[in-house]
Amino acid sequence: MHVLLTNDDGIAAPGLLALENAVQQLGWQFTVVAPATEQSQCGHRVTTHQHLRVEALGKNRHAVHGTPADCVRLALFALEVKPDLVLSGVNAGGNLGQDIVISGTVAAAREAAYHGIRSMALSHYMIRELVLDWQRTAAWMAGKSTCKTIRTALSGTSICPTCLPTRRCCLHASRAIRHVRR
To answer: What whole-number distance in Å separates Cα of residue 5 and Cα of residue 138?
Structure first.
């Protein structure tokens, strides 16, 4: 499987690095085409009145001076990437409710779906006083349940916005389950 990775937090964002790590653990081929700088809350904006610049940062790694939707378009049509799947994220912060409309993370996945490519927008729910554990995020993403979701739940031109839990949420949930079972 060949995966296009992108985001709205920028090419150096820890969430994108966690996603790369997860895809490597799964043994999948990937190409990264992500914004050169943070583009959070840019919605589905595309650049129309200025030139887009792409910087090659290494084999299969490109920084785009543009939006997440620009990144997907350039990957598909200028860089001729032929992905089986587009994964956008992992966004530092949840994309829930009305956030989906303004999210660059979701816009990148939506752009892929517009072009007939299945896609998933990944966001990490945040609690103010907790630091995100990106290694745990990568391990969770490479786990059986997420991998199964990616392989079976997405078909055709579907898009799947997904919000990952924090460790604290998982701890509370596991305590609640133990309490109910007693």
So the answer is: 14
The per-residue pLDDT for range 57-78, each reduced to its tens digit, is 998 999 999 999 999 999 999 9
| Chain segment 27-51, per-residue pLDDT in tens | 999 999 999 998 887 888 898 999 9
- Residues with Cβ within 8 Å of residue 126, at least 6 apart in sequence: 92, 93, 94, 132, 166
Residues whose CB is less than 8 angstroms from the CB of residue 143 and which lie 6 or more positions away in sequence, other chains included: none
Closest CA to 16 of 98, 105, 78: 105
Out of 2.40.110.10, 3.40.1210.10, 3.20.20.140, 3.40.50.300, the CATH code matching 2-181 is 3.40.1210.10
The span from the CA of 104 to the CA of 79, in Å, is 20
Interval 128-155: pLDDT, tens? 776 777 777 777 777 755 666 666 545 5
Of 97, 172, 166, the C-alpha closest to 128 is 166
